[in-house]
Amino acid sequence: MALKGNLRDFSTTQLLNLVNLARKTGKLTINGLSENASLYFREGRLVYAATNAQEGHLAAMLLKTGKLTREQADAINNQAANSSDRVMGKYLMDARLVSRDDIVQGVKDYMLEIVYDLFTWTDGDFFFEQDALPANDRITVPLNLDNVILEGSRRIEQFEKLQDELPDLGIIALKITDKPLRDVKLTQDDWRVISHIHPRNSVKQIAMNNNMDEFQIRKIVYGMLQAGLVEIIRPEGLEQKKTIAPITRAGRKAASQSPAEKRSVVTKLIDRIRRI
Amino acid sequence: MQTVKMVITGPFSAGKTEFISSVSEIDVVTTERKISSDAERVKEETTVAMDFGRITVDDDLVLYLFGTPGQRRFDFMWEILSEGMLGFIVLVDSVRPETFREAKHILEVFRGYASTPYVVAANKQDLPDAWSPEDLRIALKIEKDIKVLACVARDKESVKTVLLELLYSILENMQGDEA
Ligand SMILES: Nc1nc2c(ncn2[C@@H]2O[C@H](COP(=O)(O)OP(=O)(O)OP(=O)(O)O)[C@@H](O)[C@H]2O)c(=O)[nH]1
Ligand SMILES: [Mg+2]
Fold first, then answer.
1. Using an 8 Å Cβ cutoff, are A13 and B138 in contact?
2. Assuming Cys at both sites, which of A218, B40, B138, B153 could form a disulfide with A162, CB separation 3.0 to 4.6 Å?
3. What pLDDT shows up at residue B72?
4. What's the whole-model pTM score?
């Protein structure tokens, strides 16, 4: 069983959404055009990220996220280059250079920077290794993907991508799912959209009510859709295309059959196929 | 004599012909006629492009399996094929994510034609690069109440299972309608 493909066909947003919903554990490798990234997940949560351009050791992470100065980072690397991140973390805390919170926040910011950047990648082979975990000595911080997806999809700049996902805004409406909204960080614009969700309001109407242009509304709705906060429904009052009346002879016959007769046809088919 | 039909649809090269061939009692009739310039004004009537298989139940009942043409230029046939169908199967090529979007599109179009039951078959599960049915369900955003089944179209038993699961859904749907 595999999970591989290219971002051209299955985007970063879709991939993270899949990992999130399927509560996957393992390593996702993406070989982009100029860089390669690896993301590690445990039960659907992001726990570690690295790229080939940025080695993900603790000192480098803390330098990058401003928790250590260049001099401090260099000094530490000289002294403790071969020690594990866990040992180094303890050393840094003992030396009162950083606090536990600094370390957690630093690792988190570092991961987010890498993962948000991936949302702008449009090309690259990806590949998921089920159950692969980061090296033991690494400091991992579990991050809920709902927020990552929501924030990451705001960085999508390609209109076409958004166009693909949501075809005609005039003929779709939204429904709020039963996923709790309180766990995610919604922006003011998100709330403005949410406050207009109603089965009778098409997405186009929601945009008009909020004075949003098409790109804005698509971005917001796309993010909320991917994070599973809303789902698409047909607006009320817009009739689904009528089922075509059976016009073939067989069809007419079927239409005039009683429910019991119809059921007996299906049962016969079942018996027959079992015997093939 | 009553005939009933099921439609096997899905993107180009998903395995529709293979699927029907595995259970059909006749050689699958695959018809594709070029549109000659003369005939263009009456396209629909002169172009035939589909797979066609048969399973005879008894003297009074025959099941036809229709496979939709894989190429986009035959889209106009979909609606005709869907008329009066008992149900339909959307075959997905589990090793080619570049076709997932198309698969979803086809699924939505057929759902628009008729509210008959359907199942999604994640085909080519024998290949090492196949996406699992569970991942495909999420990738294609298939609702919980729709079955997404593992399938190997070359394997008769696997095809039988998919057909049976569709029939069970049809039966359930009938009971639901009556209640
Ligand atoms: N390994 C494997 N190959 C399959 C399976 N089903 C179909 N194939 C192969 O996939 C290719 C396409 O199969 P077809 O049955 O021709 O597909 P189709 O959907 O009828 O294609 P079009 O009519 O051209 O759209 C063929 O080479 C088949 O042999 C399967 O379950 N496993
Ligand atoms: Mg074919």
1. no
2. A218
3. 65
4. 0.79
